Amino acid sequence: MGLIKIRIHAVMDKPAFMARPNQHHQQQLQSSLQKSGKQRGNYRVKFSKKLSSAEFSYKVKQGEFSKSLNQVQFVNNTVSEAANFLKTGHINRDPAMTSMFRRGTIFATFFLSLIGGGLVCAALVTQHWIEARPWRTPNPQESAGKIHFGLLQGKKDLNVAYGWRTYHVSVGQMIKQDPTVMNRSLWIATLVTTSLALFASALSALLAVLNTATTPRTKIFSVPGIYLMNFLTLILCVTSIITWLAQYYTKLYANVLPKEDTENMWTSEGSAELGYSFWLVVSAGVVHLVSIALVGWGSGGVKDKRLEPIPALEEKTAAAIMLY
Q1: What's the rounded mean pLDDT across residues 276-290?
Q2: What's one GO-annotated cellular component (predicted)?
Q3: pTM, to two decimals
Q4: What is d(CA 55, CA 28) in angstroms, rounded to the nearest whole number?
């Protein structure tokens, strides 16, 4: 028996056949079409030549009509996606691939949160928020000095032309003994906001791990929570930067020495500079800004903001790997 070419055209009216078989053959065709398991639209089928009842029955049993309709369904889906692209400007992605992509971007924010937290922690423990090179006004050529301190501790090296002498500085004690050196309120605000930024960064990293390994049911623990913690960390870093800049321009730029040194004719006017510890906080703010943009890019353009649930076994395995 030679092959018979079949042309299928999708329409939205009732099926019509140029060579209509009897009712028994129509029931066989309907049963064959239902094996595909999907609801289909109505189609008009045209044959290149009339089929006998035996030929029609044989093709129904072989499932040729179902194969042809599957091809029509594929073409219809392709045309629908192309029309949607022309209308909206984007193509609908596979939900599973979209979910993996979103999880990957969220996992990347985990490393960014670790980097941001490390930068803030380094800024807290290092002693280079401010640096200056003082001198004595009676003998500026023979005298020299180096002083730097952070939010808690610092060091001061002075040479009055008889050799270098090192002194350790406690910032809190220095402010207590001489309130004119630094503004106490601005110092406390910088210290508190920087410490809170470190805590918020740690929570951001924890939420990123949680959303990578599992699918939280509560919004505060899902993607909105990651947004919130990264945004909060960014705000705290910016606040810390602003308060320290205010401290620098109102107090430290003119003098970084306590009263006991200024009475000994030492001065640091105009020599103070912002140290690398300060710029670590600036870098941490930039890192969390990138993290916010990354989360927005990974979850943007999707109406459903929640990640697709994954099987329980895979979820437990992923969580165990992340905890390890």
Answers
A1: 96
A2: membrane
A3: 0.64
A4: 13
